[in-house]
Amino acid sequence: MIKVLVTFGTRPEAIKLAPVIHALKNRKGFEVVVCVTSQHREMLDQVLSLFNIQPDIDLNVMKPNQNLMQLTSEILVALKKVFEEVKPDWLIVQGDTTTTFAASLAGFYSKIRVAHVEAGLRTDDKYHPYPEEINRRLTGVLTDFHFAATEKARENLIREGVASEKIVVTGNTVIDALLSVVHKVRDGRRKIFQERFSMLDSSKKLILVTGHRRESFGEHFENICNSLYQIAEQEPDVEIVYPVHLNPNIRIPAHQILGQHPRIHLLEPLEYEPFVYLMDQSYIILTDSGGIQEEAPSLGKPVLVIRNKTERPEGVEAGAAKVIGRSTQDIVRETRHLLQNETLYKKMSRVRNPYGDGTASDRIALTLESFQA
Question: How far apart are CA 112 and CA 108, in angstroms?
Answer without folding.
Answer: 6
